[in-house]
Amino acid sequence: MKANPKRQRFFLILFVLIGLGVAILILRQPSARPTTPRIQKVENDLKKAKQRYDQRIADAKNQQPDPDVELVRNILAEKLASRTFSFATVCQAVSGKKVIPLDQSPAGQKVVEAINVALSEILPQLSQADSPVRQLRRINEASRFFEDALLQKLNSTAGLNCEIPPTRDGVHQRSGYPDLRIEDEATGAIFYLDPKLVEQGSAGSTFRSFYFEPKIETLKVNDDAVHLLVGIEHDGKTGAWTFSGWRIVDLSTLQVRLKAEFQASNAELYRETELSLPADKH
């Protein structure tokens, strides 16, 4: 029987295609690699590392950003401790009121002269042996005696009114800057006065002695005014202080620094604690 040429070509093509298919399947199979315990450990470590990485990415996407974190970072980035600011600018930014430089106007001269006269009488009185200041433990506690004495003396000066400056709510509050508010009746000019006690010889020290807290609720700066500070010197003899002189400072030219610090009170620190006692105290 004679073979059919067409049929032979068909089977030949079919065998070729089958061979090619088998070859492709073989080539696509992953090549066998030798597996050892060390290789297996490396592969497992890589899988675990990838899983941890994927988990961190997922957690980062799901986690909401903390606005306080960003705020703290922005504050620290400003490097405020190394910068200085004009007190006049800071005060006006907080209060909306201008800090007016002290000049030789009649009102300015009258107020400065009244302060000088008052202190020339107050210092000898508070330096006496029976002075109430001598009964204090700390010199800082003596400031209120100078405030009270200046308030009385300046308020009794003709043409001047002196008072404890009120807050924005109208409360006459002793704490906080400034301590005294002086008004010249003739012109309506306002002067703020802040007495400070300073030990003799320390006027050139870098110790921080002036503080201004920009707190709107208790702000006592409610007028365009001249801002004065009087530094009253003492001899540093604890319990037997003698006051020798004073310096009047125009704060319109003062440069101040901002100290950024985080703080907490005793009540916040210890509210969930109990007092422990030594063994012999139980």
**Quick one: biggest sheet?**
6 strands, mixed
CATH fold title of the domain at 88-256: ECO RV Endonuclease, Chain A
Overall pLDDT level:
84
Number of strands: 8
Low-confidence stretches: none
| Helix/strand structural class | alpha/beta
In the CATH scheme, the class of the domain at 88-256 would be Alpha Beta
Query: What proportion of the residues form beta strands (DSSP E)?
Result: 15-25%
In DSSP terms (H or I, runs of 4 or more residues), the helix count works out at 7
Describe this structure in words.
There is one protein chain. The chain is of the alpha/beta class and 282 residues long. It has a domain of 169 residues: ECO RV Endonuclease, Chain A (3-Layer(aba) Sandwich), CATH 3.40.600. Helices cover 39% and strands 15% of the residues. It has seven helices and eight strands. The strands form two sheets. Strands 2, 3, 4, 5, 6 and 7 form a six-stranded mixed sheet that branches. A two-stranded antiparallel sheet has the order 1-8.
